[in-house]
Design goal:
heterodimer; A: 265 residues; alpha/beta; five-stranded parallel β-sheet; B: 455 residues; 13 helices; oxidoreductase (chain A); NiFe_Hase_small_N_sf (chain A); Oxidoreductase (chain A); Hydrogenase_assoc-protein (chain A); NADH_UbQ_OxRdtase-like_20kDa (chain A)
């Protein structure tokens, strides 16, 4: 997101949109208990179905989009949302990378339908789950499954004052060091995706003695040929490596390429 | 207009519910022909892609079904996989799980009370709209909600999709001193929760009832949350009582492993609807059911608040069957959850290990816990090396769908009989009736319901 020169007069209008998702990222906005009423003073929360039964008309100055695209109607809906949005920010792993539902991308969706539904013929869905950026231009992508509350506030604040959000793209390792957490790989031999995962969570998992599982997706500096042997050294086999890469950001290009390479051997 | 012809009412986007749904109601000659809750959340196929995953993964993966109640998914998943592996988590580890779950109850129920449901009773569109005239109350709600989040953040690492939960317990358990800062916050929250019960008890409630079986877990001696056996209370009509009767009725209990024998998904003729029926009857899970089944085990402070709020004394067989008053029951449950969290912290001693080992074995396991909106059941079948070969998730909203539709049908029918309501009035009424049950549509997508329109 670049600095805005054509800022709207009056309170800018905020819209929150949902595609295939768990609602957790938009809930993060309601979890800003200390800031919510303050944000509502600065921004007109114009369209937010989860929170309001009085949706206001567009166009919108800032659209936050949660969820991935999995139906034909949603392809049309995201195009419309783009048209009526001055700035469009994706929130979370589904909107940014396709989400956990992108696991269908490796499977036969007809078989998936039959496995879950008694009448699969009534379920209309696309063969793939894709991020918003596969369909329309996106101004900024906020990572995470779920997103971090502090980063969401940063994105909204940055928008309000017309500057780029300060959201670092380095790996979780930096956050561990800053937090003072002992490295779980070095100290305990625990497999950890921290070295290749985008920062933003505050290095939560290592702080709880658990290896990072990559819920913020790839960082800006992944080096899988060097990294995968570390996972193997710490006890993971090919199936384990594929599984850990194929979760909430499975369709992120770096994770996807690495998991495919693993399977090819 | 004295004679109404066929009329179709559509609410295209339900607001202030979790997930996306719509309502389709067909009226013909002043008779409600059909009430249909249509869920257009796109399917995400969790049960399909869980197959082939490791048995350690369902707690994290299924938490992504619902960002509003991730702990419920993690707990039901843990219990089901542990059941398959023959492991029982008890003692302080079980107490910590209950504490975490109390955090989710406080957060999620308060969210529903203040941000989603209260605006209906006070003529507002949203909590932000509400804050213009009821600022002190909305701030109290946000503070209370935050206390629930604080419990989840401390124990789970974060409130949405916590990272510290694993099979057998936790990755890391806190020292007693780490829990202590929560105490002051929860004491304040207890005051806020008491005031919440008083606040919502002052709302105006239409008369209504529900002639369904009530289904909730029961764990004698405690208000069942993270464990217990499914227990059903008969519908009032079976005892010749009206739907709004506040009398407790006989219950029957079955094991979690028999859940699938009793709660059966059926496909109705002429529609693609999948409806859950309990032994062939429509049933309701959630706050009203829990209060009926476990109300006698509430803590003294919660029991007193319930009585002061006009809910009667559950120890004397009082139940609440008015879905509009579910907001009071939710508030009582929040008060209980705060009180219970304080009790658990007070008696906490760190367990010797943060988790029990859960070695895999080829078996099928069942788990059920009380999500904020009702009973959430998971079943997994594991292969010899711990690979999931089959998964089944039955969320509360899917079970409640039939009851919600029946509520809508009856309410609209009553209103048609008492005047000439406009579409806008009916729409408003239906939205409120749906929110009475706090439906979580994100969870229920695999109960997607489409009905063929017949002319």
């Amino acid at each position: 997101m670049t600095a805005d020169t054509d800022r709207p007069a009056g309170r800018p209008k905020l819209a929150v949109w949902k595609f295939a998702s768990c609602d957790g990222c938009q809930l993060t906005l309601l979890d800003c208990e200390d800031e919510l009423l303050g944000i509502a003073d600065k921004l007109q929360i114009s369209y937010f179905l989860e929170a309001s039964s009085a949706p206001g008309p567009g166009p919108y100055d800032l659209s936050l989009v949660e969820g991935s695209v999995t139906t034909q109607q949603d392809i049309e809906r995201i195009r419309h949302i783009r048209e009526v949005s001055r700035r469009l920010v994706t929130i979370g792993a589904c909107a940014t990378a396709g989400g956990v539902q992108a696991l269908r991308n490796y499977a036969d969706v007809a078989e998936f339908r039959a496995a879950v539904y008694a009448r699969p013929d009534y379920i209309q869905t696309l063969e793939t789950s894709t991020p918003i950026s596969a369909h329309v231009p996106v101004d900024f992508e906020l990572r995470g499954c779920p997103i971090d509350r502090g980063q969401l506030i940063e994105v909204i604040t940055a928008y309000l004052v017309g500057r780029a959000p300060d959201v670092p793209e380095h790996s979780v390792c930096f956050e561990c060091k800053r937090r003072g957490t002992v490295c779980v790989i070095v100290a305990h031999g625990t497999p950890c995706l921290g070295p290749v995962t985008h920062a933003g969570c505050g290095a939560l998992c290592p702080a709880y003695g658990r290896g990072c599982y990559g819920c913020f997706g790839p960082s800006n500096s992944t080096n899988f040929p060097a990294f995968i042997p570390l996972l193997r050294r710490d006890g993971m086999n090919t199936l384990d490596v594929v599984r850990v890469l194929r979760t909430y950001n499975t369709a992120a290009p770096e994770f996807e390429a690495a998991s495919r390479k693993e399977l090819r051997g | 207009m004295t004679h109404r012809e066929s009329r179709v009412l559509r609410i295209r986007s339900l607001a202030r519910v979790e997930g996306e749904g719509a309502l389709h109601l067909r009226l013909r000659d002043d008779q409600v022909d059909q009430a249909r809750l249509q869920i257009y959340e796109p399917p995400r196929f969790f049960e399909a892609f869980l197959r082939g995953r490791s048995y350690t993964e369902p707690p994290d993966i299924t938490s992504r079904v619902c960002g509003i109640c991730p702990v419920a998914y993690q707990m039901s998943a843990c219990r089901a996989v542990e059941d398959a592996c023959g492991v029982i988590v008890d003692g302080q580890l079980a107490a910590l799980r209950r504490l975490l779950y109390c955090g989710e109850w406080i957060e999620s129920q308060t969210l529903h009370i203040y941000l989603l449901h209260a605006p209906d009773f006070l003529g507002a569109d949203s909590a932000i709209d509400l804050a213009r005239t009821w600022r002190t109350d909305v701030e109290r709600g946000l503070r209370l909600k935050q206390a629930g989040n604080a419990v989840m953040e401390l124990l789970g690492g974060r409130a949405i999709h916590p990272v510290n939960i694993r099979l057998g317990g936790f990755y890391r358990t806190p020292a007693a001193s780490e829990l202590r800062p929560l105490v002051e916050r929860l004491r304040r929250a207890r005051d806020d929760a008491e005031q919440t019960v008083q606040w919502v008890a002052g709302f105006d409630f239409p008369d209504a009832g529900c002639d369904y079986e009530l289904l909730a877990l029961a764990e004698p001696g405690t208000y069942a949350i993270e464990s217990g056996n499914p227990t059903a209370m008969s519908a009032p009509s079976t005892a010749g009582l009206p739907a709004d009767s506040d009398r407790a009725l006989p219950t029957r209990t079955f094991g979690v492993r028999e859940f699938g024998d009793h709660v059966v998904e059926t496909q109705l003729p002429h529609s693609t609807a999948l409806n859950s029926l309990l032994d062939g009857h429509r049933h309701l899970t959630g706050s009203l059911a829990r209060y009926a089944i476990s109300g006698q085990w509430l803590s003294p402070i919660a029991l007193q608040a319930a009585q002061d709020a006009g809910l009667g004394d559950p120890r004397q067989g009082a139940v609440c069957r008015n879905p509009f008053r579910s907001i009071i029951v939710r508030a009582v449950e929040v008060l209980y959850a705060v009180d219970e969290a304080l009790r658990i912290i007070d008696t906490y001693e760190p367990p010797p290990r943060p988790y029990l080992d859960v070695p895999p074995r080829a078996a099928t396991g069942h788990g059920a816990t009380e999500a904020p909106r009702g009973l959430l059941y998971h079943r997994y079948t594991l292969g010899a090396h711990g690979t999931v070969t089959d998964a089944n998730l039955v969320p509360p909203t899917a079970q409640n769908q039939g009851a919600i539709e029946e509520d809508l049908r009856r309410l609209v029918q009553e209103h048609l009989g008492s005047g000439e309501p406009t579409d806008a009035e009916l729409t408003n009424l239906c939205e409120k009736a749906i929110r009475n049950h706090d439906p979580c549509i994100s969870c229920s997508t695999h109960f997607l319901k489409l009905t063929i329109e017949r002319s």
